[in-house]
Amino acid sequence: MKKRAIRTVYDIAEAAGVSVATVSRVLNKHPNVSAKTRERVLEFMRESEFRPNANARRLVAGGTEQACFLLSNRHVAHSFHSRILMGVEDYFQHVGGHVVFTTIEYGPDAEFPNDALPRIIRQRGDINGLLLAGVNHPCFLKYVDRLHIPYVLFGNNLVTGLLELPKKNSVSFDEVAGAHHATVFLSELGHRRITFIGDLSKPWYRRRYEGYRTAMGTRASPESAIDIRNEESAFELGRKAVPLLVAKHPDTTAVLAQDDETACGILDGFRRLGIRVPQDISIVGYDDITEIQYLHPALTTVRVPKEKIGWSMAELLSRTREGRHALMPEVIGTELIVRDSCAKFMVKSVSVK
Description:
Elements: H1 9-16, H2 20-27, H3 35-48, H4 54-60, E1 66-72, H5 79-95, E2 98-104, H6 119-122, E3 130-134, H7 138-147, E4 151-154, E5 170-173, H8 175-188, E6 194-198, H9 203-218, E7 225-227, H10 234-248, E8 254-257, H11 260-273, E9 282-287, E10 300-303, H12 306-320, E11 330-332, E12 335-337
Parallel strand pairs: 1-2, 1-3, 3-4, 4-5, 5-11, 6-7, 6-8, 8-9, 9-10
Antiparallel strand pairs: 10-12
Helix pairs in contact: 1-2, 1-3, 5-12, 8-9, 10-11
């Protein structure tokens, strides 16, 4: 069998069965390494004629950080992840490091390595950590674990079939609490017939629905949902939901949308039917994306601190470089931003004009 080429400190770490931090200590002649481990690492270096390049020397010396922000299965122009990247860039500018950006498209059953992998990851050169954003699946995380590359995951969009957030090396925001807060706000305005609109097959929207459902339960209000699945456009999902809402839940006085894009589609659907916001019905979005600044009326929404998420991911990555032990996840809170799309309950039902 052909012996795998050893080119980077990550290859040395994997071959010797140690962490990158241990290789760092050996190369820097740090005393906190056992003689047996030191000799094993040096033996792999001698056998492979390994010579650390300039970037690797900076890594093992604890110098300039250069991380890769990898956006998985998401459109590059989407403002949500763009603002997470802005937070990452702010952190690396603060510490004098660098971040490179690339993308990947893969499915839940993908096998790695494959041609979809960006070259910078296939060769594992010039970076000392990964920031994984977008939609990710466990198959890719398992591959990254095998590479012994430190990484931090944006935890909300990990697809596992479970509602729980990741339990290590991740930064997430509290989707359940955000939706709960929004639902309580609508309830305090006097609304009792509040409908959730979204795609409940996706775990991130399901968590938001659970927050809505819990709040409705504590106030003894009836739950109702419009669940539309496999719609590529969130805007179209919202627009298609409006006639279903009027037909199935005509007594609805307020809507919680799965996200702001869906809320935009709902607003368009209401406009087409002559349903006024907030005079006839109130609506709350989720995320506070950049694009909603152009809406009229201005959309009440749950603000996700996207730049803070990015900064926290980069900061956590810096800590993971000290060793490959799993670090506790960080969960960031959300904030309800009240604007013009909600009003006190004044009517009993919506009506088609």
